[in-house]
Design brief:
239 residues; alpha+beta; 28% strand; globular
Length: 239
Amino acid sequence: MKSLIRFVFLFLGFLVIGALAFSAQASDKKKTFAAREAPLAIAPASSGGSFTAVGSMTAARYFQTATLLGNGKVLIAGGTTGSATLNTAELFDPASGTFRSLSPNTMTSARRQHTATMLPSGKVLFTGGKMGSATLNTAELFDPASGTFTLVPNTMTSGRHSHTATLLANGKVLLAGGYTGSVFTNTAELFDPASGAFTLVSNTMTAPHYQHTATLLPSGKVLIAGGGAVRSSIEHLLP
């Protein structure tokens, strides 16, 4: 009789333990599913953006430059119609979406395939380019305050077009590579806004670059990449 009672208690104990274990297992599973079913914070997909037509420019042009000014407007200067090199410029106003010609003020020289660099003063430096079949070694400054262009008295150390112009941390502008009218060049020069002078950089690039890119890095170095002469070449220029 005692054995029977002991067996009943043992059996009931196993049932209780089993029920507790099953309950705990079910609870764990419930927690697991709850974790999987918790809301996920999904970053919205970046917008593909859209394009909207704005007013027409005052003149059709290509090989021009476009420079964002300190007042938020964009200066579009030079270029070619396909048959004539332009010395005209215009301003785009993002607020109104309109273009306004700077005429009667024009550039001191018609230019295409030139560079445009906004200086710390707010003025814009234009260098080189082509006028007709001639490669230019001249430069000029645009003053947003007066809307006028002024020739830089000093000429560049070399005529060049399809080059790059990079504003350095010290305020000088690095002009690099391009085409001189006869050769792809591996030379570079510095423009100093304080003196208005161009100085040839004694060290040359490792290879000629034309229609390349130039990027100022956080280190202060300038990355020169690709171009028509040596498309796969990449190098650093030390200012």
